[in-house]
Amino acid sequence: MKSENKDQKAPAPAPNPTDKWFAAIASMFELAAQSEGPEKTARLAGTLLENLRSKGIDAPKPVSTPYVNTIPVEVQPEYPGDRDIERQIKSHIRWNAMAMVVRANSNTNVGGHISSYASSATLYEVAFNHFFRGPTENFAGDQIYFQGHAAPGVYARAFLEGRIDEKKLNNFRQELAEGGGLSSYPHPYLMPEFWQFPTVSMGLGPIMSIYQARFNRYLKARKLIQGDEPKVWAFVGDGESDEPETLGALTLASRESLDNLVWVVNCNLQRLDGPVRGNGKIIQELEAAFRGAGWNVIKVIWGSDWDALLAADKTGLLIKRMGEAVDGDYQKYSVEPGSYTRKHFFGKYPELLKLVNHLTDHQITKLLRGGHDARKMHAAYRAAMDHKGAPTVILAKTIKGYGLGEAGEGKNISHQQKKLNEKELREFRERFQVPISDDEIAEMPFYRPPANSEEIKYLLKRRKALGGFVPHRRVIAPPLDVPKVDYLGEMLKGSGKMEASTTMAFVRLISLLLKHKEIGRRIVPIIPDEARTFGLDALFREIGIYAHKGQLYEPVDRNSLLYYMEKPDGQILEEGITEAGAISSFVAAGTAYASHGVHMLPFYIYYSMFGLQRVGDQFWLAGDIKAKGFLLGATAGRTTLNGEGLQHQDGHSLLHASTIPTLMAYDPAYAYELAVIIADGMKRMYHDGEDIFYYLSLYNENHAMPPMPEGCTEGILRGLYKFKTGAEGLKHKAQIFGSGPIINSALKAQNILAEKYGVSADVWSATSYKRLRNEALNAKRWNMFHPTETPKQSYLETTLAKEKGPFIAVSDNIKTVADQIAPWVPGGLTTLGTDGFGRSDVRSRLRRFFEVDAECTVIATLYALAQRGEVPAKLVAQAIKDLDVNPEKVFPQIV
Ligand SMILES: Cc1ncc(C[n+]2csc(CCOP(=O)(O)OP(=O)(O)O)c2C)c(N)n1
Ligand SMILES: [Mg+2]
């Protein structure tokens, strides 16, 4: 330990109760408590601290405040719009949103949700009329993550705006109906000119919005975009806040000072089954979490009707009562008549009963919650827009199914309600004064006021003033001039005597791409704390790590050539240990062409086991949102990643990858294959504009990288090509497919088979079983529907048709990966793979254990020949003996 430095300034002493300042302030608070009550005094203390902070004094920040609105009525701004017209517009939207769901279900039972939008209509409408900015020539537009289940409300508004016609509205959730329909939830893949961000898998919208806001800053810092900064808005459910992804990245947003980010949590106190926190208060719980994480928190709990009650509450008893009641109570107040609330909420204290003596039961029923009050929401949004230095969350209290009355307002079944009877429809119509006659009501017609009505003129004027319609996804990025494979020429030449892994080859490849004049600066290397593992650490110094504050400290390795360099325009996104965050960055970068009109090329390299398996739903979302880029599952293979064992060894990512329709899945063995696949991928995605993305396995085993053989480009891309023909003049013939470094098992087996057993085996590199299968399926399907025409043959079928002998596949993946093509392999496919949990050990023992080594490949080949009657069974038995394989050995596959 260092000796204490006497010259150092001593820390300020803790406040001493005898200190004159302390004593004065303390006695003032005591006086306040006596006259105003403890609740008001606590609020006073909070406001005082806040005041001090606004004057630059670093006063402590409480994580929770009383259960009242954060913005006091005294500082609430004037409402800038025409509230009557806005209310009418909102009512029409409410009706249409409800009608589209109820209509769809009366015809088809396709589902849909009424109550989420019913609770959030005001949250959206205030923002549509006053805050959301649409894209213009020079502005990307605000980026809005709508709550997935509120989609009917967004469609209903677009209907009033004239962007969606009645037929489409009628075909909500019936996308395959004649003339098309509307997707159930926000899916850019299905409605590419409308939705920007998929949100319906709970938690993904929230986390993506944080990384989107950060990526916007990254683009700006790197001078790839200019002009006004979009606001990123995320509408989140209170139930959704239980997803780890929702709250998991909060501190990133505050650390990065993302004041371009606003979350609105719709606190309707309910989720699907019932209350979010019946015994507690979700708003208070979230407030503490967000404040603790450094966010600006604005609570909008009470509507304007409560202002007078709070002002009249001289003792703070009302605030105390508000704090006492739990969410389960508040839900009850929303379903019971005003008399119930009078008795059970106010009635707990006689003084509070007096406070509401002047109100009828009906008036008590109508006391609004903050999230249903446009003025309160407007004040919150205004404050969020003006807040600097930190992201804002607005916790808005609402009622689930607001306006549905008996049909579901505040009820536990509310989320699932999708049918209303005629009586309920009439009540809804009356409550929101929708001009639909008694004769028509049972038909649930949609209602759109005439084009020249005040409402429509107002609505369009507001959108025009704000730049245009939202949501609106537009793709304006011009095609990129991507480098051809020759640019990666050195990767095609082979490594000579030197051995390398495909991971090392990738490091070389990305270094070359970073130097390319057109695309170099558009490359976004994304790494979740694993750069050193993959040998990418040299990039730290070459292109820098993005850090909005730069580097405020001297890194410990400053004197080394490749030090850990952070800088404001750094190119690498070093995410730390968050695969969920890293894939969110991938999505933000991979969709910059649509959200900013700028092509970016993300290369997200990660530990393959912690990708598709861990955050697979986000990979799926990347397909939906049409993200482009390359995902690199490094340290792939159940046996190539030796030592690490069961939780690390991946043998199934390629199978996961094959489930995502637009994900191209490759398992390259050699550096030149990698170069060919990536060059073609860049062309397909960024030049030809295909909506696809790529997954490639990378391995860490060093082996010789051969030069690229002539004429194999098509085979590499389509999934299979002959790499090395077997010896001539032998009696038997076989075909072995190898992938990744396990191609070396095939090549070694080729030698043994030729030398010892008279078998000439051709060795193939199988780069994409997924692609082979999909092409084969397509051909088969075409043939089925065109039975009288000349059948088509897939690439796989044509390629294998002329080959002789049994087919054997060996890879470092579970067998189902190669088995994808089995139906089209003449005579069937014998597959070797790594089914079962991994083990920690060295490669050679692992490969024997999983039976994917050269010896087991020889045995499998001979056995396949024996089954065809081409060699005697005893030759197989002999080989098992010769090659020292124990036939009774344990095998990890579990039945
Ligand atoms: C990951 C995930 N799990 C479950 C669901 C099914 N689900 C859809 S909405 C919902 C309840 C949503 O409650 P909340 O977030 O409070 O939203 P609200 O509708 O109340 O505004 C559930 C469980 C889902 N869409 N995504
Ligand atoms: Mg909810």
What does this structure look like?
41% of the residues lie in helices and 10% in strands. The chain contains 36 helices and 20 strands. The strands form 5 sheets. A 6-stranded parallel β-sheet has the order 10-7-11-12-14-13, with helices on both faces. It has a 5-stranded parallel β-sheet with strand order 1-2-3-5-4, with helices on both faces. Strand 13 (663-666), helix 28 and strand 14 (693-697) form a beta-alpha-beta unit.
* Rg over alpha carbons: 33 Å
Mean pLDDT, to the nearest integer, reads 95
Assembly category? single chain
How large is the share of residues in beta strands? 5-15%
Helix and strand composition category = alpha/beta
Which small molecules are bound? thiamine diphosphate, magnesium ion
Strand tally is 20
Span between N and C termini? 59 Å
Could you describe the largest sheet, including whether it forms a barrel? 6 strands, parallel
The number of distinct helices, counting runs of at least 4 residues, comes to 36
Helical fraction = 40-55%
Q: Could you say which overall geometry the principal axes of the C-alpha atoms support?
A: elongated
